[in-house]
Amino acid sequence: MLPRVLGYTPAMAQKKSSGTTGTATDGEPQKDPYTGIQAERVRTLQDGDPDGGGRYVLYWMQSSVRADLNHALEYAVHRANDLEKPLLVCFGLMDDYPEANARHYLFLLQGLADVAKALEKRKIPFVVQRGAPYDVAIELGRKAALVVLDRGYLRHQKQWYDKVVGALDVPVVQVETDVVVPVETASDKRESAARTLRPKITKHLTRFLVPLPTTTLKDTTAPRVKSEDVSDPEAYLKKLKVDDSAPPVRLWEGGNTAARKQLKAFLSNSFSSYSDHRNQPQTDDVSHMSKYLHYGHISPVAIALEVGDRHGKNADDLLEELIVRRELPMNYVFYEKDYDKYSALPEWARTTLDEHRDDNREHQYTAGQLEKGETHDEYWNAAMKEMVVTGYLHNYMRMYWGKKIIEWSTTPETAYKTAITLNNKYLLDGRDPNSWSNISWLFGNQDRGWTERPVLGKVRWMSAGGLERKADPKAYVEKVDKLAEQVERQRAKGA
């Protein structure tokens, strides 16, 4: 257990544990009776008799693509053992996942290959089948005694779960494993800012930041179910009919094994300068965990536990980003039904942007010009290049990148659409709650009004001069150019 997280200690948690939240007290959490996993992580979506004759327990793995510290997987193993049945883990692979392209698919496939190896070592059958994920789960679920799901928070994921529940007449249980504190336990409403969510999350941390033991599956019988062979992700990618407008990036490799390796390197080499350098885009002293968290290739609990008993500002800042700043977007998309729409922005932000929509814009660029990095601003062009060639954008530059899109677009609505499109197309960590929340933050969401300026009104502004005062953007440009050369060499070698 972490001795200190966000300035909060286990002793403080025990002292404040007289009330109840959700289904458990802050000090003594209730556990699921079958598995010992925190009860708040487990939700019954459909009741039923698991002894009704099904052949196996099915775990539909979709959001949490890992065999390491996966509460949904361990729950499924426990239930299979209790029911004295085999376990089948499945993944539904579709060619047209919303806004995904070859870049995203290769990273995902690498994660699936890693899962297959890890589950094979544990003698747990794993199958990948082509088709809409909910159709795969429904077809395999018809022969199951119990169906276990992990949990995503986006609209289409919620719709998938509803379809599975509506089509099956067996028990369906969902286990939340991609956040530290379950979303509904942390808060029962949309939070306005990190400062309002932070104390609500902090009081639960000592209960949820704990290791998860692995359990041996007793009946390792492999159900006779067909599966795609994803052991060679590069070769399998060629079989998929996916958008190839953003080619794969081979600076990174997907999967829990690669995530753990990257995390170890960060903690060994860069962690000591994290707080000083995390807003210095010319450096690379960041964890690079966001892409792995996006695909469920690593658990946020696992990352926090690896931080271990480290103290000081570096640990506090890292855990703040990992837990509070990352789980605020989950809260946003869960409680805001229009999270992907401009209309979801706060009224004050939409009002001030509307009041300034006719302001003179010294520079205006089309979406096509922006995508090609054809602006007058070398810092912004470097940010766009970093996105295109590496699939990553340093978070500090992401703010500058987005603010300038607002400043250079004909309307705020056009800017919003452009920012979302470019973000989701090129970034490996795009297309998730953090993307929707972070893009909306550029336009004033979960922020406050600032000094009024042209075009942005009272929405927070960023300037090239400010960038130069706080960082070394010229060195950042040089860093990106070197990365682009490295990627080109890799591409040429691969060709």
Characterization of this structure:
This protein has 495 residues and is an alpha/beta fold. 47% of the residues lie in helices and 7% in strands. It has helices at residues 10-15, 71-83, 102-121, 133-141, 155-167, 183-186, 194-202, 205-208, 233-237, 256-269, 274-277, 290-294, 300-307, 313-335, 347-355, 367-371, 378-390, 395-408, 412-426, 433-442, 464-470, 473-494, and strands at residues 20-21, 24-25, 42-46, 56-60, 87-93, 126-130, 144-149, 172-175. Helix 7 crosses helix 14 and helix 17 runs parallel beside helix 22. Residues 8-27 have low confidence and may be disordered. It is an enzyme of class 4 (lyase).
Calculate Rg over CA atoms.
23 Å
The pLDDT mean sits at 93
Unreliable runs: 8-27
How is the largest sheet built, in terms of strand order? 3-8-7-4-5-6
CATH architecture of the largest domain: 3-Layer(aba) Sandwich
Shape: globular
Question: What's the total count of β strands?
Answer: 8
Number of domains: 2
CATH fold category name of the largest domain: Rossmann fold
Structural class: alpha/beta
The fraction of residues in strands falls at 5-15%
